[in-house]
Amino acid sequence: MKYKVKSGDTKKRKVSESLAENLKRNHRIVDYSLDNLPDLIPVRMLNEFIYCPRLAYLEWIQGEFAESVDVVKGKFDHRVVDSPTESDRPVSKDDSESYSVESAYVSAPELGLVAVIDKVEIDHGNAVPVDYKHAAKPSVGYGVWKTDLVQICAHALILEENGFAVDYGVIYYVASRERIEVPIDNETREITLQAIQDLREMASSGKIPPPLDDSPKCPKCSLVGICLPDETDFLHHDDSEPVPEPAPRMILPKADESLPVYVQHQGFSIGKSKGVLKIRDRGKTVQDIPIHEINCLSVFGNIQISTQALQSLCNTGIPVCFFSHGGWFYGVTQGLGHKNVELRIVQHRGTEEQMIRLSIAQRLIADKILNCRTMLRRNATDVNQTDMRKLSSLASKALASESLDTLLGFEGSAAKIYFSNIHRMIKKKDKKNVPLFDFNGRNRRPPRDPVNALMSLAYSLLVKTWMVTLYTVGFDPFLGFYHSIRYGRPALALDMMEPFRPIVADSCVITAINTGIVKPDDFITRLSAASLKQTARAAFIQAFERRLSQTITHPVFGYKITYRQIFDVQARLLGRFLAGEIDKPPSFVTR
């Protein structure tokens, strides 16, 4: 693992070598052995391994999964054979009749394989495994891809261990409607047995294989947005060498067509019926929302939700976020969570390594300071250039800080400069040219003026969004690197949101004020505590969600991407850093 620094800078070199050594230890994620791997390999994983070893590792060892267009089409093409035959007739070598069994679940303990075979055609003890593929027949080898060849042979080997004679298998290509017979000869058996051995050795290594190099397979892969092959390769290079060309291809996480749902009307209840959430007011349904159209449910204050609705949301992986009536984020309810234990292992290891913690915190706070500077440069009037220079200097000092306490001091100094200039970005004025909103510094718990009330709500929404993202990726949101670990505090979510406070949350606040989305009479002030009225809060939440859906050019990779997707990419790249795949924590600084 290389981590370049300028020659002659002994102190930085020692720090970098220590960081690189810690990352190297993390690179072997889990101390697996062949004994503690699953006894049976799903044959589908054997297919994935031939296609791409990294894909097999992500799916089998780390439990990652995502659907692509090809996956959805494949499911559709398998609809005829995806259910067991109605008679539930078992696969038996002793049956004298000729018959077929669909979706046959069979295993071979000695070989160490298990599979659901699309179809098994049986005739007096002879068996023919049939596999359905949605693509057209390729013009290679036997007329089948190597992945399909190994998969059909593995099915044959399983059937043989169960006492059947298997001379050939069949692959049916749906797109070209061709039935290809594949002989189960010695060469095919050797290829398949070697693939089984190689897959087990790869899994037992405890080290994720590197991404494929500029492979045409990647753009069509369902896990490309999780694997991030080009991004990982792009960030993993020697600092003394030119940045790799070309820049990463446009194969980032797909836009999520499902949307967040907010329920804030006090006294509403949420139930469920046949895959649809029922939002009711005093027993009367006011809105029906199909569960598959939701990616997150947020409830404010006195909202009741039924056990059936919670169970359905947990089963489909949709988090339920709870806020106080005023917008304070309490927590989140979700299902069993992500299966990627390896990611949580390297996260826990990283929190125990001071150099890893410091390197992540340095990058997050330096990015935050630079993004604060960008916000002022873009939107403030008559900003003091001395303040701008100080922010640049503080960002540099943050990157070179020697401890988390020192870093906290630099962050505090930058925050003082930034918040002293917030009023210069507020342009909404009355007829007498007096600003409609006054801001004299950051205050909270409770916020004492409308601007601070908006900021507190925006930060609550931002930390909620980051918690959902981290849960989705597989992190523990409560175990952070910069923010201290405290009961109930989502430390990692607070860490990751730091660079995005100014460019997402504060930007949304300034836009809402300057465009009149919120007005001075949209607030209630009691005992020096300001809060938004319910209708105005709904309008502000819509503005916040629009900001998250806004498309921008990624400053590192150069492709178009929304802030929602950026959060996912940044979280996954943090995982790549902790696992030792890239040398530096991910950065995000707008231009």
Compile the SSE list and pairings:
Layout lengths: L9 H18 L13 E2 H9 L1 H9 L7 H9 L20 E11 L4 E11 L2 E8 L12 H16 L6 E6 L4 E6 L2 H19 L19 H4 L1 H7 L23 E5 L4 E6 L2 E6 L2 E7 L3 E7 L3 E2 L1 H9 L4 E4 L5 E5 L7 H12 L1 H26 L5 H15 L4 H16 L30 H24 L17 H7 L2 H15 L8 E4 L2 E4 L1 H15 L2 E3 L6 E3 H16 L13
Parallel strand pairs: 1-3, 4-5, 7-11, 8-12, 11-13
Antiparallel strand pairs: 2-3, 3-4, 5-6, 8-9, 9-10, 13-14, 15-16, 17-18
Structure write-up:
It is a single chain. With 591 residues, this protein is of the alpha/beta class. The protein has three domains: 35-204, Lambda Exonuclease, Chain A (Alpha-Beta Complex), CATH 3.90.320.10; 259-333, Ribosomal Protein L15, Chain: K, domain 2, CATH 3.100.10.20; 341-578, Four Helix Bundle (Hemerythrin (Met), subunit A) (Up-down Bundle). The chain contains 18 helices and 18 strands. It has helices at 10-27, 43-51, 53-61, 69-77, 146-161, 186-204, 224-227, 229-235, 307-315, 341-352, 354-379, 385-399, 404-419, 450-473, 491-497, 500-514, 534-548, 563-578, and strands spanning 41-42, 98-108, 113-123, 126-133, 168-173, 178-183, 259-263, 268-273, 276-281, 284-290, 294-300, 304-305, 320-323, 329-333, 523-526, 529-532, 551-553, 560-562. Strands 1, 2, 3, 4, 5 and 6 form a six-stranded mixed β-sheet that branches. It has a four-stranded mixed β-sheet with strand order 7-11-13-14. Strands 10-9-8-12 form a four-stranded mixed β-sheet. α11 runs antiparallel to α12 and α14 (450-473) packs across α15. The longest helix is centred in the middle third of the chain and has 26 residues, at 354-379. The two termini are 30 Å apart.
